[in-house]
Amino acid sequence: TFARLVAQCLYCTERVPADLDACGMCPSCKQVQAGTHPDLLMVERPDGKQELPIDLLIGPPEKRGREGLCHDLALKPMSASRRVAIIDDAHTMNDASANALLKTLEEPPEWAVFILCTTESHKIPITIASRCQQFSFRSVDFGELVARMEWIAQQEGITADSDVLSVLAQAGEGSVRDSLSALDQAIACCGTKLDAVEVRTLLGMFSQDTLDQVAGALLDGDSAKMLGVVAELEANGRSLQHFSRELSRFFRNLLVVKIAGNPTKLV
Q1: d(Cα 224, Cα 114) in Å, to the nearest integer?
Q2: Taking the model in full, what pTM does it have?
Q3: How far is the C-alpha of 36 from the C-alpha of 59, rounded, in Å?
Q4: Nearest-CA neighbor of 156 among 196, 197, 186?
Q5: For 70-122, how does the pLDDT look when each residue is reduced to its tens digit (9 = 90+)?
Q6: Which of 85, 155, 215, 254 has the most C-beta neighbours closer than 10 Å?
Q7: Omega prior to 263 cis, within 30 of 0
């Protein structure tokens, strides 16, 4: 989404230099929004593929060098002063794809703009990363995420209380997109009335009661009660590894509240 907004700003014919935002109304802006701008090149990992194949960059073997992103970038822009290449999931490039892109990055056409999108920047080869300006996005505040989920639920006619919205926001871990994906899953499974317990189960999360039981067993020194919780989780097919991560987060939050007080944005 951000990459498209950058492209829109570069192509907007009504934007004044002092204004950061594109107008969103001119023909160029609308073409970018629709994904039909002739100078906007998108490279996305095919569904079901673990890697970004080299064919997308330099064309299939029978047309190698005459198709693909690198070939298209070498052509002069058709209707603008720049050609913008957006590479999604850039961290999934294999060695062959990265080497093909590197050749173009080393001697790029003067009109070329590259935008590499990734959630795992550490996987980008250093030879490519060293030629890029990196912008890291901060996590969205938990309260803002909850408010956004609430607004969307109202717009879509979905009944969801504060517990459900908190579960969805927590599932996104600061990412609006991931929280929206969790909301889509919940609606598909539970319909228009969402229940916190059902949503937690759907997303593989654990109820507050289960975490409280473990904390209580620790306080009481009751090993048998603790093993009972584990046995119940295993009998219900729950991931014990995932439960350990949830429990670590729970204890971390307890410690933070104990030190920083409640309420605190650190939780």
Answers
A1: 58
A2: 0.70
A3: 21
A4: 186
A5: 899 999 999 889 999 999 999 999 888 999 899 899 999 999 999 999 988 89
A6: 85
A7: yes
